[in-house]
Amino acid sequence: MDIEQIRDFCLSLPETTECFPFDETTLVFKVAGKMFLYTSLEAEQHWANVKCDPDLAIELREQYSYVMPGYHANKKYWNTIVYDKAKEEQMKEWMLHSYTEVVKKLPKIKREKLFEQLKKTGNLDDRL
């Protein structure tokens, strides 16, 4: 995947916004004002930080050499992925997981609305 594909996928998720809250080169994607992915636009190595269930985060780090503890983030909940080494379907799955991890923590009314919208896009099955 490249940064344009990541951007397109993130923006396809309901109520996603993009911004540069830290500097002009750190692109952040948010849902309901909460980050679910951020990446540097000028780093030599192409990486993205995604939120992750703590147990899954450890499992992914052990399984894939290009998944590491979150760079400049709470390493319990965030993974850094060298996205040009990951398969496109893996990245989409991990970005979607990150998005849903954030949505799960929202108030019930907002959470249910976003999950309904997500189901309509075909990006979410009945696991949640």
UniProtKB/TrEMBL annotation:
Pfam families on file: YjbR (PF04237)
SUPFAM superfamilies linked to this entry: YjbR-like
Domain of life: Bacteria
Keywords, in A-Z order: DNA-binding
GO-annotated molecular function: DNA binding
InterPro entries recorded: YjbR (IPR007351), YjbR-like_sf (IPR038056), YjbR/MT2646/Rv2570-like (IPR058532)
The protein, known as: Putative DNA-binding protein (MmcQ/YjbR family)
Species per Swiss-Prot/TrEMBL record: Coprobacter fastidiosus NSB1 = JCM 33896
